[in-house]
Amino acid sequence: MARIELSDLAHSYLPRPGGEADYALKTIDLAWEDGGAYALLGASGCGKSTLLNIISGLVHPTRGRILFDGRDVTSAPTTERNIAQVFQFPVVYDTMTVRENLAFPLKNRGRDPAYIAQRVQTIARMIGMENQLGRKARGLTADEKQKISLGRGMVRKEVNAILFDEPLTVIDPHMKWELRTQLKQLHREFGHTMIYVTHDQTEALTFADKVVVMHDGRVVQLGTPDELFERPGHTFVGYFIGSPGMNLLDAEITGDTAIVAGHAVPLGDRYATRAGRTQIGIRPEFVSFTDEDDGLPVTVQRIEDVGRHRIVRADLRGFAVNAVLPERMPLPADADRVVFAPEQIGVFVDDWRVEPASTGAA
């Protein structure tokens, strides 16, 4: 296990990058603590896999350093970093049996045959392939082959880190849940540093103790699932986390009031006036309908029943506004005004969250 630190890291696939736009990864300074379970979350093309491949040594960064427990491994080959990596699509040896595939990393390192047999049996049970250990990999399905890849990544106890690059893409939905649970169990049992790349917020939030959210080649927030939901540090985090995501509305801020589409919205605190595009953000869970005249006028477009709650899709003078209502809460036929819980409103300038003026923070 190891503490992994990224210092002034940036990467471009161009031979002579110029400005920031030429970089697939903008400047990153980040530490993954020893024994932590992390998810690296973001949309396709945001740089997640590039960052993972830099940590593993498959890609050499254009700038910056990678440190394992304080040791600079930026130029060290993958074999010297002592990590296991599981890729998006299954990488197995078709001519080997399931047992031989799982044992390969241990045999390659000269481990005792009895120990190898015990570990293979343990991992096979974890991935649900105990009854297929004698089968050749060639005849297995794609999701079975990916389970072998997962197992091979987990079979070594002494690795510095295990890196997972969207490993459940080809796994059926029920097995995804089971494997995520097993990965969490493995982490609790052995305490490996684990970094799990995904574009799926459910996978990220259920697997990780902390989530690193990436957008357009940069890390926009590191936090617990609760922190990302309750206090998103960037509009992308607010929109990307949650179902549906945060409502984001252009606004003018004057002290403790936001003006949205010509209407006053009370805020939970006072904010200084700032230059740049200003928005307020409110989770749909904190939007409610009212019959008071001081509510924001909306037009309800449709209602989606998703079981335990309903999602009301509305329009506020060209802005989409979503509200989440409990399943049994009635919605009047003439519902046309909403209010926001003031203490749950965030203020964003040029996409970054700003703190109230009373805190003295930037």
Structure, described:
The chain is an alpha+beta fold and 362 residues long. Helix content is 24%, strand content 34%. The chain contains 9 helices and 22 strands. The protein has a 6-stranded mixed sheet with strand order 6-7-8-3-9-10, sandwiched between helices. A 4-stranded antiparallel sheet has the order 2-1-4-5, covered by helices on one side. Strands 11-14-21-22 form a 4-stranded antiparallel sheet. A hairpin with a 2-residue loop joins β21 and β22. It is globular. The protein starts with a strand and ends in an 8-residue tail after the last strand. 39% of the residues are buried.
Q: Any descriptors?
A:
alpha+beta, about 35% strand, about 350 residues, four-stranded antiparallel β-sheet, OB fold (Dihydrolipoamide Acetyltransferase, E2P), six-stranded mixed β-sheet, Rossmann fold
> What order do the strands of the largest sheet run in, or round the barrel if closed?
6-7-8-3-9-10
CATH domain fold name of the largest domain: Rossmann fold
Number of domains: 2
CATH homologous superfamily of the largest domain, by name?
P-loop containing nucleotide triphosphate hydrolases
The oligomeric state is: single chain
Low-pLDDT runs of 5+ residues are none
Number of helices: 9
Radius of gyration: 24 Å
Distance between the termini: 36 Å
CATH class of the largest domain reads: Alpha Beta
Helix/sheet category = alpha+beta
